[in-house]
Design a protein that fits this description.
There is one protein chain. By secondary structure, the chain is an all-alpha fold. The protein has three helices and no strands. Helices cover about 55% and strands about 0% of the residues. The radius of gyration is 37 Å and the shape is flat.
Length: about 110
């Protein structure tokens, strides 16, 4: 069994080794950063670029004419927009919505303690 004196010596040795590795790593990093200022893999182009083949255009999906990526701010619906997009609720739709809401409320209240 190790005595407390051996344990302290082992702990001091471990700390010294860690500090030595840390210092060695710092020296290596500093040496690499100060070593060469030019990149080894850099390429300098002194000539003008000449195109030997036509550039290939990336294929993009076709957007329909009535698809808007953004709408202008403060956009107000025209009567044509209302006729195309708005469906006025009728009695049957409102009854279905009311039944669905009542069902959800009942489930929530039944689940509450």
């Amino acid at each position: 069994m190790m005595s407390s004196l051996d344990h302290k010596k082992l702990l001091k040795l471990g700390i010294i080794v860690l500090i030595a590795f840390f210092m060695l790593a710092m020296v290596i990093l500093i040496a690499n950063s100060l070593g060469s200022k030019t990149k080894k893999n850099s390429v300098n182009f002194n000539e003008d670029f000449t195109l030997f083949q036509p550039l290939m255009q990336v294929e993009t999906p076709v957007m329909p004419d009535d698809y808007y990526l953004t709408r202008p701010r403060n956009y107000e619906w025209t009567q044509e927009d209302v006729n195309q997009w708005f469906t006025p609720p009728n009695g049957q739709l409102l009854e279905q919505l009311n039944s669905a809401n009542d069902y959800m409320i009942t489930n929530i209240l039944e689940a509450a303690p």
